[in-house]
Design a protein that fits this description.
mainly alpha; Cytochrome Bc1 Complex, Chain D, domain 2; 0% strand; binds heme C
């Protein structure tokens, strides 16, 4: 009977712990993946969604950790199975994070505040770069090679709206937080 219990316990799935995963993430992954909105790093921010348009499922994330690719090292041999499960559990808390913001209000606001300088149906330049194709993951300044780490994430787009620069006005005090969230939600769909 005892043997049976032991056997049952050993085949039960390991129950992954996202808080251990967070600590591992900070030491193994944090150098490339930002968790602080003010930082831009070489790997994509993982909050909200995967930028590669793969679904943020357990298996997809585990596969990325195992095999890396696209500039990310393979961790298959570097971590134990349980450590990988903890990491997946933590990454899932990031990718399922939901930002506030209503893209349809954002569209209306975009048309009145941003549309004069930015096309949304092409990547052609008006005064600012055309924004079509942003949802594929790269901002125009990354696509044209001037800024390697400009991934299309909530925080990078918000930072651009807040601070402008390079010919773009500063919208920090011109829009409410809610309006900015709506615009970001819309821009991420382009
Ligand atoms: C040396 C930098 C680096 C390290 C360290 C790193 N990554 Fe990455 N990671 C990247 C890059 C770059 C990409 C984008 C790959 C691509 O575009 O194909 C990426 C992609 C990902 C993706 C997929 C994102 C998507 O949109 O599909 C996940 C999930 C991920 N990393 C998780 C992790 C985890 C968990 C760790 C730690 C175990 C880690 N990364 C460590 C650089 C890194
Ligand atoms: C007066 C013209 C103008 C207006 C209005 C304007 N922008 Fe821009 N925007 C620019 C210019 C110019 C750039 C390029 C900046 C650079 O290259 O440094 C830019 C860049 C951007 C980028 C790309 C950043 C990158 O790294 O590629 C985004 C996203 C963006 N703007 C969003 C917006 C949003 C959202 C609004 C409305 C709230 C807005 N812009 C309003 C001129 C404008």
């Amino acid at each position: 009977m005892k043997a049976l219990i032991l056997l049952t316990a050993s085949v039960l799935a390991y129950s992954a712990d996202p808080s251990s995963g967070k600590i591992l993430f900070e030491s193994k992954c944090g150098i490339c993946h930002a968790t602080d909105p003010s930082e831009h790093k070489i790997g994509p921010e993982l909050r909200g969604a995967l930028r590669s348009h793969r679904s943020a499922t357990h298996d997809v994330i585990l596969e990325q950790i195992q095999n890396g690719g696209g500039g990310m090292p393979a961790f298959g041999e570097l971590l134990t199975k349980d450590q990988k499960e903890d990491l997946v559990a933590y990454v899932l808390t990031l990718t399922t994070h939901v930002y506030p913001g209503d893209p349809s209000s954002g569209k209306t606001l975009f048309e009145s505040k941003c549309g004069i300088c930015h096309a949304t149906d092409s990547s052609e330049r008006r005064i600012g770069p055309g924004l079509k194709g942003l949802k594929d993951g790269a901002l125009p300044s990354r696509r044209n090679g001037t800024n390697e780490d400009r991934n299309t994430t909530h925080d990078v787009v918000m930072h651009q709206i807040e601070n402008g620069g390079g010919g773009m006005p500063v919208f920090r005090d011109l829009l409410t937080k809610e309006q900015k969230d709506d615009i970001v939600a819309y821009v991420l769909t382009l």
